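Figure 6 in text form: structure in, sequence out.
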């Protein structure tokens, strides 16, 4: 029997055996009544707290996502690795938890980590354990049964912990091992996030056998301008093709990306890596020279990539935290979403990454509305009718009719987020603000605006992208931070594009074909379900044209549970 047939049968048995269809049905009913903020196609567990994505991988036809999870409540605590599997990155089955405290080296928590596929197609997880002394240490776990494509059971190494906080490492600031990579010398390398003497640092280890690890004298990289680095990620991107690159690839036409999570954001830098001496020569540094490269300029943290060999692409997952309060989360019974998985590539000019939602998500598109060549005169608000505006995918392209109308950029306006928070969607401009109003009531009392403003600076045009949550809900107590990013594009040569994935309490927006991404969490009180509308708008004095707009209602992803969990960790 073919492996795919076995898997289909296996999944079906799991689904039927445990009445998963019924549980999905009841959670959908819940969503439509008491739970306006639960999502239809973003990944969520049925209940409780979720944070970082951990160890994503593709193995024998199945995508695996592990994540930091509290099995006992909707706030952070009792952290274990929950586990879900999928054929398509869209529909998921929650299976038994993979890694939970059992050993002295993880008895107080199983924190973030990564998967490496060892030769012979053998996955291995390196993760941070919190030991009996509450110290952070690094542990190894491997699948019990490699012929089970769902990898349901994991065995911890008897040699754990493999790496410990000695020789000046602070035991509270030492965590989140990356996917390891093998050099041409067949030796494995891995980095662990830390803070030493107040500075963020990627401690480098090497190993011949994946069990005995030696710390290198020099870190892979460090920065005097940041504090603790959480969840580092280090991987190659191709400079010559749009394919993803395996973490251990020896391909020379690559650059390397180092990502670190700090200050509530995921920042990255680009450079060239030489495995011969483990030198990473960077092009720019973290928080340096005004270049502030982030995966996402809104909510997006503790992300992780993996190489998907089946589709030759690198995929990025990020944790999207809530913007409401802890007591709201306890009332909702859950907290945290995962982003839609995104493909990551180097941009054509090689200066940054570009991201795009995985193609598979498009299969959820159903009813479509489209228009072409619609002029948006100054002050216009145009409804995008006939789709489920609370659960939608929108792709729009704006043509600028009078570029010479662009306002002059004051040279002191270098902080995009600050500029957006001063020039919110309600503040009239010349070329912009124009864009979309998501989760809007008919009277626009509630609205989440994602929009652009175009400025001129000497002979260049500057494109600012904003996400303004200030009117996203009549509830006052929420965090309604406005986010912003400059989009590296020249509007003389291309239209301004925006793709937004709207899903009940989240809007993930991709500007300029994925050169700037902004994710927002919103909690409309009035604009929910059928009371939510979607509009295109132009609040600038200069007209713009929608050269094309496509919007789709999105179907629910099938995200189901198959197991009756025991009360605590299992
Ligand atoms: N979350 C994990 C840590 C990581 C942090 C704990 C980042 O391993 O540093 O849940 O969100």
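Output sequence:
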């Amino acid at each position: 029997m073919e492996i795919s047939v076995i898997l289909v049968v296996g999944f079906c048995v799991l689904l039927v055996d445990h009445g998963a269809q019924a549980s999905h049905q009841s959670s959908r009913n819940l969503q439509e009544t008491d739970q306006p903020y639960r999502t239809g196609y973003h990944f969520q567990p049925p209940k409780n707290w979720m944070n970082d994505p951990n160890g994503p991988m593709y193995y024998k036809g199945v995508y695996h996502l592990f994540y930091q999870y509290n099995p006992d409540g909707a706030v952070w605590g009792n952290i274990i690795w929950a586990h879900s599997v999928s054929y398509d990155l869209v529909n998921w089955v929650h299976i038994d938890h993979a890694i939970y405290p059992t050993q002295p080296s993880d008895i107080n928590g199983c924190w973030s980590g990564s998967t490496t596929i060892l030769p012979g197609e053998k996955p291995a997880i390196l993760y941070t354990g919190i030991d009996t002394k509450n110290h952070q240490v690094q542990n190894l776990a491997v699948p019990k049964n490699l012929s089970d494509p769902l990898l349901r059971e994991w065995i911890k190494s008897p040699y754990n912990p493999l790496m410990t906080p000695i020789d000046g490492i602070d035991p509270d600031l030492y965590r989140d091992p990356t996917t390891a990579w093998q050099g041409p010398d067949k030796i494995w390398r891995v980095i662990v996030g830390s803070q030493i003497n107040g500075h963020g640092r990627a401690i480098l280890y090497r190993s011949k056998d994946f069990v005995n690890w030696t710390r290198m004298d020099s870190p892979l990289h460090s920065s005097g301008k940041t504090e603790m680095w959480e969840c580092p990620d280090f991987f190659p991107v191709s400079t010559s093709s749009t394919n993803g690159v395996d973490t251990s690839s020896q391909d020379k036409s690559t650059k390397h990306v180092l990502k670190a999570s700090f200050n509530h954001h995921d920042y990255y830098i680009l450079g060239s890596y030489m495995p011969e001496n483990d030198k990473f020569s960077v092009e720019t540094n973290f928080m340096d020279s005004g270049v502030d490269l982030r995966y996402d300029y809104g909510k997006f943290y503790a992300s992780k990539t993996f190489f998907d060999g089946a589709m030759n692409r690198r995929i990025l997952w990020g944790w999207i935290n809530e913007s409401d309060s802890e007591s709201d989360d306890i009332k909702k019974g859950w907290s945290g979403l995962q982003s839609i998985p995104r493909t990551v590539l180097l941009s054509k000019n090689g200066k940054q990454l570009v991201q795009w939602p995985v193609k598979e998500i498009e299969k959820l598109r159903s009813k479509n509305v489209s228009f072409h060549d619609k002029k948006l005169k100054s002050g216009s608000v145009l409804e995008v009718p006939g789709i489920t505006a609370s659960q939608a995918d929108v792709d729009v392209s704006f043509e600028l009719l009078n570029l010479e109308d662009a306002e002059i950029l004051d040279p002191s306006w270098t902080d995009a987020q600050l500029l957006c928070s001063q020039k919110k969607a309600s503040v009239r401009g010349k070329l912009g603000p124009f864009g979309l109003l998501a989760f809007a009531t008919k009277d626009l009392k509630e609205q989440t605006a994602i929009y652009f403003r175009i400025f001129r600076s000497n002979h260049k045009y500057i494109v600012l992208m904003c996400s303004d949550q200030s009117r996203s809900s009549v509830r006052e107590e929420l965090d309604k931070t406005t986010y912003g990013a400059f989009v590296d594009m020249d509007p003389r040569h291309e239209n301004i594009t925006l793709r937004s994935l709207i899903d009940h309490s989240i809007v993930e927006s991709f500007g300029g074909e994925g050169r700037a991404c902004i994710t927002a969490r919103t909690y409309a009180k009035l604009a929910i379900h059928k009371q939510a509308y979607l509009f295109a708008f132009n609040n600038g004095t200069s007209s713009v044209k929608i050269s094309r707009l496509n919007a789709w209602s999105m179907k629910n992803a099938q995200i189901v549970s198959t197991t009756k969990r025991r009360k605590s960790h299992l």
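Caption detail: The helical segments are 3-17, 20-33, 326-332, 416-422.
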